[in-house]
Amino acid sequence: MAKTNSESKNVKPSESTGVQQGERAPEVVLRPPVDIYEDADGITLMADMPGVSRDRLTIEVDKDMLLVEGDARIDMPEGMDALYADVRSNRYRRSFTLSGELETGQIDASLKDGVLSVRIPKRAEVRPRKIEVRAE
Amino acid sequence: MFAHLTNFGGSLFDEFRRLQDEMEGLYGHWPMPAGIRSVTRGTYPPINVGATPEQVDVYLFAAGLDTKTLDISLQQNLLTVSGERQAPVKEEANYYRKERFDGPFRRLITLPDDVDPERVDARYRDGVLEIHVKRREAKRPRQIEVK
Asked: Which of A25, A93, B130, B142 has its CA 20 to 30 A from that of A38?
């Protein structure tokens, strides 16, 4: 069956990825599990994205939307048949809305062993401040 | 109109998986009998198994593992992988979501009968544990020449 250009862009060759993908199957996206917590200085997001290296990861902030995307890449021998597959896509995607008190220009992200951590600091003016009492 | 209020970033696939789990709960393993060693979907870590005539590859999608905690053993064709994945809760922080797996895990994977337990290697890269097991020579398909 002939593929159009737009289709072939999304379909990765199956030998270079961890999964088999049907030629015309709609794109299946994995939703990475996340931990999200807040402390006095900001919000931290941690996401499990095994198989994703730093150059295949994108983190985008568009206004109040945080988008995390990544492609898992696994080198597999040529002509491998899948016997069993829990993971049926090589594309991770998840998005979150941010709120106004977060300093979206100061987001810091790191990736280690497939774990992404994103640190979003709060704006200085909304951080809790300790008020010191002067002794007179 | 209210699509943005009901869409929490879930994919259709997750919904399907949830539905499948619920169906299993309601009707047992209908319509197919489950394998004696099969596990519930969503068991940590997710695995993929692939095979070529020369070898069988097992991929465990386990991000953030300390490889020192890993214990991999192969008894005939039964592969056991156990370890511990730490994703501890920070005490001074308030959590909105805690979805990442935390704690010890163990998975048993039945490989094809002709794997050679003497020739196994494993490596961990980008959060994926790869285990390669070679198959025995005799079981490989041979080209038979017609005279």
From this structure: A93
Distances (CA, A) of B8 to A10, A46, B22: 24, 17, 20
Q: Is A98 on the interface with B (CB under 8 A)?
A: no
Residue in the block written with tokens 């991000």: B63
B22, exposed or middle or buried, with CB in 10 Å at 0-12, 13-18, 19+?
A: exposed
| pLDDT one-digit tens code per residue, B72-115 | 999 988 999 999 999 888 888 999 999 999 999 999 999 999 99
Closest to A119 (Cα-Cα) out of A30, A32, A35, A31: A35
Query: Residue B130: which of A72, A8, A32 has the closest Cα?
Result: A72
A65 and chain B in contact, CB less than 8 A: no
Which chain A positions have a beta carbon within 8 Å of B100's beta carbon?
A: 33-35, 46-48
- CB–CB contact A50 B62 (8 Å): yes
User: How far lies B60's CA from each of A50, B45, B115, B141, in Å?
Assistant: 9, 6, 18, 28
Per-residue CA distances from B57 to A22, A76, B61, B64, B147 (Å): 21, 8, 13, 21, 37
Closest among A93, A96, A90, A91 to A45, alpha carbons compared: A96
The C-alpha atoms of residue A71 and residue A50 are separated, in whole angstroms, by 9
- Interval A17-37: pLDDT, tens: 444 444 555 678 999 999 999
Q: Interface pTM (ipTM) of the complex?
A: 0.72
